[in-house]
Amino acid sequence: MNSNVAKYLNQQVMTASPSKLVYMLYDRAISSLREAIAAIEAGEIEQRWKANNRAMEILQHMWSTLNVEHSGEIGDNLNRLLPYMMLRLPDVDIHNDPEPAREVIILLEPLRDAWRDIAMNGVAEGGAARTTAQVADQADAQSAAPARRTIVSA
Fold it and tell me: How many angstroms separate the CA atoms of 104 and 33, rounded?
């Protein structure tokens, strides 16, 4: 990677708000899964593994830093959803199958979009309860749209 690009990306991360960092993590996980799908289609096994592994590492980080005690119902839901996604993604590599990656992208996109809206609209960082409710409402509204849905239950 070009050193100027690396400096720019580092600056973006270092100056981002907490909500923008969450959005960036979701966005990077999704783009990594799209890279894995493209690598499967191109027959590039090593690239598939690298991209899928990057997505799994991001999800693992998000799960390990999730504060379930202070995040209410959405925290409880994410505490079930993130490990489910991590259980699905090894099938991408084991079976060279893009479908688990597509399924996880479908689950991640409404969450990413909600966090993008929060980050870009300047929702107060201290308003955690309000922010959590907005994320839940956004995810519910988007999942109500006519699209393929995956139901996850514990």
Answer: 8
> In this predicted model, what pLDDT tens digit does every residue of 77-107 receive, in sequence order?
999 999 999 999 999 999 999 999 999 999 9
Domain count, the chain: 1
Angle in degrees, CA 138, 114, 58, rounded to 5? 130
Tokens encoding 77: 């839901």
Q: What is the pTM of this model?
A: 0.75
Query: Considering the domain boundaries, does residue 153 fall inside one?
Result: no
Strand, coil or helix: what is 28?
helix
* 85: helix, strand or coil: helix
Neighbours of 136 (CB within 10 A): 15
Looking up residue 121, the CATH number of its domain turns out to be 1.20.120.340
